[in-house]
Amino acid sequence: MSLKDRLAGASVAAEAKADSPGASLRGGASLDTKDAIKRNIHYLLIDEMGTELDTSTDEVGLRYRIEAKLQDLLNQETTPLSADDKREIVTDVIDNIMGYGPIESLLNDPTVTEVMVNNPGTVYIERAGKILTTEKHFVDEAHLLRIIDKIVARVGRRIDEASPMVDARLPDGSRVNAVIAPLAINGPMLTIRKFSHDPFTAEDLINFGTMNRRVAELLEACVRGRLNMLISGGTGTGKTTLLNVASAYVPPDERIITVEDAAELRLRQAHVLRLEARPANIEGRGQITIRDLVRNTLRMRPDRIIVGEVRGGESLDMLQAMNTGHDGSLSTIHANSPRDALARLETMVLMSGIDLPMRAIREQISSALDVLVHLTRLRDGSRRITHVAEVEGMEGDTIVLQDLFYFDYSMGIDEIGRFKGHIKSTGLRPVFMRRLEDLGVTLPPETFEYEPPAHR
Asked: Would the pTM count as exceeding 0.90?
């Protein structure tokens, strides 16, 4: 059954409920709550304007007609309603029809970083790194399905019983994941990781405590000096945000090509080409993978290749690109530490289907990568850079990593549970500094000045 069929069935059920004693809008009986009024008006509006809501391309005209229809329906309502009540009902129903329903206000709230809909009646948010419950809820399952369908249709994706899981994005680049039946047992699930309308800058991350000015200067030097950088971290640690910040240091006269599963990066340079992977169609054909796109970028004369996230066989193609003249490439990877990131990279190269000895894979990695930056979301909800490591090469069969900066946990926790620590220099000067200086990129000596760990 399609989403539209489900919605039609839910509308019939709602109309039957509206015809029952004590719940009808048009029968003159009173309604118990504004929520019941909103629910019934919502379904009456869908029943009367259904095809127009799906096909109209004039949003301004459609909004005017919806408002007029809502006023007609409210005029027929016998329950006493104040002007504020009517205004609230109109706003909520328009949000449900034209926007994203009850989560519209959450998406517009700059303090909310993630919206998590577990089922129609349960909505959580993330604020300041902490997960909080809300009083928001959808009318029913059909209402949530309609919002999910609206989101995925705008980016040319689909979600139904044949493809019950999808990754998509909002117009502002916010990341969307949706799962419906038969995979979702307790009802449709929707997760939206919001992106700031005004992209974060290095100064913002310094103010947040994610990094300090020394690390920011080092990242800028690495990008301008065309070092290959891999950003690692767990889910929700801010990898894509840091990738956006680092990519801002790419000179404006370079040709940049981005490759992503769902387009999220927002580069401000003029010469940027954005590529996005495509899933298979309903017949199982037409899939274009990130690996296909990475291979294609090599024919597009890139100065920089930025891969939003490596998660499979494309890692081999990316390493080969880094080793064949495409210096300054950037990417992210899910991992628990810099060393784990290298291990995951080895595993993903094996997923390419090419039978390579482990030593050859490690030599490719050690030759391609110059810098690893690792992010962690701490227990207090803050996101911090906890390691900046240089890839120095091979020693026997092992890739040698050297920490340049580390997060000092030994500084302890304050009375409200926040970490007092910050990222500190190990005092070691990286080997790649000579390469940067040859390119005219310099850093002040105090960048790598040793900072001793705290003693409790």
From this structure: no
